Amino acid sequence: MRYFVFTRNEWVKEMLRIIVCAAKMDIAQHLYKKSYELIKAMGAKCELSYSVDANSLLQNTKSKAKLYDIYLLDCNDQQCINLATYIRNINLIPSIIFCGENAENLQSLIKLRPSYIISLKENEHLLGEALKWCCNEQIRSRTYFNVKNKDVQMRIDYNTISYFESRQRIVAMYTTQQVIEFYAKLGDVYSRLPNDTFVRCHQSYIVNMSRVRQLDKANRLFIMLSGRTIEISKSHYKDVVDEYEKFVTST
Questions:
Q1: Where would I find the beta strands (DSSP E) of 52-210?
Q2: Which backbone phi and psi does 204 adopt, to 5 degrees?
Q3: pLDDT tens digits for range 209-241
Q4: Are β-strands 16-21 and 46-51 bridged in parallel, bridged antiparallel, or unpaired?
């Protein structure tokens, strides 16, 4: 698995995570190399990796690993389809591009709501268009957090969210204007948030770093703009401090 980062910021300002996965090494490496060249030409800010083991990616996702933003998956590999099925069962936000030597099982693929289905034999030239579409799709989706409970369904601007608090099966979202409660697991909520702005600092808290007034290292606390203090657990402390310092220096 390999990684690269582009930091030319005039187009995509947030880090996007893209995974290429195919059962055959030659196809995975070909798609990785092609995607590398196309994304470099776009000037996108992203991390790209590839894998030939969709089942491992699936198990990692089930163990609450953070979702990728864009999945480039082999439409001829059942394990890749299983991975896409699981992703769609838990989250509609990630973009999916299906690629393969042939794309014959269209009906079953369409049900998984991919952004593109590309036959490498017939229309590989669409890959650049597909990647650009998905990058833009992800930037648009990152603007809002979609929330639904028995009373309301709405989109909340990320910039107005201060933090999330877990109360057993209920998550409370604190914004600059209101508190909205909904049923969810905090880990699932975290997987839907941009990881360059939000950080999980405790088993019960996710914080929007742009709404932090001060990091109190002595007492392991975030002091929010609202005046509320949020505890940082010992197990999260080192990673949280690193993430917050990275955030402060990049803004």
A1: 70-74, 95-100, 116-119, 144-148, 153-157, 161-167, 170-175, 179-183, 198-202, 205-208
A2: -110, 0
A3: 999 999 999 999 999 999 999 999 999 999 999
A4: parallel
